[in-house]
Amino acid sequence: MDKVIPSAAEAVADIPDGASLAVGGFGLCGIPSTLIAALVASGVGGLRVASNNCGVDDWGLGLLLREGRIARMTSSYVGENKEFARQYLAGELEVELVPQGTLAERLRAGGCGIPAFYTPAGVGTQVQEGGLPWRYGPDGDVVLASPPKEVRTFDGRDHLLEEAITADFALVRAAVADRHGNLVFHAAARNFNPLAAAAGRITVVEAERIVEAGELDPDAIHLPGIHVDRVVRAAADGADKRIERRTTRPAATLES
Questions:
Q1: How far is Cα 114 from Cα 167, in angstroms, rounded to an integer?
Q2: Taking the mean position of all CA atoms in its chain, how far away is CA 70?
Q3: pLDDT of 14-57, one tens digit each?
Q4: Contact at 8 Å (CB) between 202 and 166?
Q5: For 110-141, what is each residue's pLDDT tens digit?
Q6: How many domains would you assign to the chain?
Q7: Do the Cβ atoms of 188 and 30 come closer than 8 Å?
Q8: DSSP at 209
Q9: Residue 88 within any structural domain of the chain
Q10: Are 36 and 206 in contact (CB under 8 A)?
Q11: CATH number, position 221
């Protein structure tokens, strides 16, 4: 089955207001920037997004956030986005912060059909006890907080019950896709993109390169096409690959 769609706009055209999204990427690496831009152009809003982070103020999911299109974020790290902090503290955005490994496993579990699992991450913290602010009111009071989690002991160690994440749509980026939706990811883009793809009921992929079916070595495929519904070509401009923080040091000098 040929899953290639002519344009990103067509690929996301049926995403409605209020849809839940699982979005791949890590920081600004491996994010589906072409599909996010198409969503911004579509005007869709009220989105409930699960993604490792929320981009920065002028890129990635930050573009949707800037337009007020995201109603709820489930993330593990959001520290690079000033508008995110403003909306959260002003009560305009609901935020569920999740330990990074737990977020990854919740997405993986959703893709595998596992409804919930136990993990030691977060034991003895507010993740277990509840009370983490999910939404503030306009006066700064907490109007919605995280609930306490069920605890069970395995081999003498407490574990928290975490529920799987599934989404109406998944948006991911791959290095290479074939026309049947089999995917190959590059480096750190493999962290969250395959998990998000499996967790989506309808998965839309932007790929930097699209090849014919049969061109990919089966042993090189990172995610089989059964998880993928649509494939589009990512924007050709390589300038859409950004880095959140670039840290350098002076070049070492050679002593004679």
A1: 14
A2: 13
A3: 999 999 999 999 888 899 999 999 999 999 999 999 999 998 88
A4: no
A5: 999 999 999 999 999 999 999 999 999 989 99
A6: 1
A7: yes
A8: E
A9: yes
A10: no
A11: 3.40.1080.10
